Amino acid sequence: MNLTKKQIFIIVGLALIIISCVIFIPAVLSAKNEDNAAAELSEIYNDQFVVTKSTAPAIGDDFEVTVQSETSKTVYDFEVKDGKYFGEYYGENVNMQVNELIQPIVGEEILVMSNVFQKGLEEETALENVKADKATVHLLVDAEVSEETAQQIADALKAQFGEIPVTVEAYVVDEERVFEGVKTEVLNFFQLSKINGKSFVDFKFHEQSFEF
Fold first, then answer.
1. 111-115 vs 84-87, strand pairing mode
2. Could you tell me the strand order of the sheet in which 63-69 lies?
3. Residue 66 DSSP SS3
4. Mind listing the pLDDT tens digit for each residue in 160-199?
């Protein structure tokens, strides 16, 4: 069967339309969900967010979204269910204050990722008003952390929160080039308080752990 040029153009045109429906339209709808999430979260928290990653579907209200504040550069994870947002925005801001407390102890090159387990906070809270039952500090480093440094971190947290259990874990990346790349990726795409050893699967590292 020989097709005319007109028939070939029609077939090609229909094929392109089908491809658009299958690939491009869902992508556009997914992007719209992400844009809506960023806008709504920005309004809820009086911040300015951009989406860094998400599982937003073309159709549906249930997905996970990670946003970054354009002001503070802090990254937050949210779960979206039926148009409602669930996350620990204020709790993560407390963790960021803890990171700032620890940073001078380890130096500016080290990535500090604290979790003082502040769940359910509904407003901004100054560090002096925070009550913590325990604290975990994860460090992304390019050389092993001494026990003395880990002890200094624990002492600083105990001075701040009282005699709470403190865990210090370090993820030691030996290659400087890899270290800088991973550090940049983590800062832009991950909520720091949720980082643990299972977060890193694409490069070699070894762990240190201290309990106080």
1. unpaired
2. 49-54, 63-69, 75-81, 84-87
3. strand
4. 999 999 999 999 987 777 888 889 989 999 999 998 877 7
Burial class of residue 72, CB neighbours in 10 A (0-12, 13-18, 19+): exposed
The length of the chain in residues reads 212
Going by pLDDT thresholds of 50, 70 and 90, the confidence category of residue 63 is confident
91-132 pLDDT per residue, tens: 999 999 999 999 999 999 999 999 998 777 889 999 999 999
Indicate the residue type of 18. I
Q: Which two three-digit tokens encode residue 111?
A: 């990535």
Residue-wise over 122-150: b if at least 16 C-beta within 10 A, else e?
eeebebeebebeebbbbbbbbeebeeebb
